[in-house]
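Record 1 of the preview.
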Amino acid sequence: MFEKKPKSYTDTLGKTNRVVEGTIIKGNIVSQADFRLDGELVGNFTSTGKIVIGPMGSVTGDVKCINADIEGRFNGRIEVEELLSIKSKATIQGEVLTGQLSVEPGAMFTATCNMKGNVKQMPLQAQAPINERQHAG
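->
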């Protein structure tokens, strides 16, 4: 009744693309797999996986992905569906839109940041101005 599809050859090997240090890419990258960038990207990156920008890696452009770890340099707009993790040696400039954000001490974070996802509403009592709460008694 329920049959599992056999995994493809690439599924069993794992799916991580890698651009090594010293490589410069000028253009856009679209990937369904995870991606590690230790080189330089001047352009946009889109993935249904995770991007890791290594300590020697840099991106100038827009990034859209599910998760991201940044140790190197980023300048542009980044949209991360779930977790953006910024390591202590990272330098971030531009605009950030993410579900969750982790910034290690020492990171250079010069960006506007908007959090998306579960926005908690404050109780009505907490929303009233302070003067009104003092007189509500």
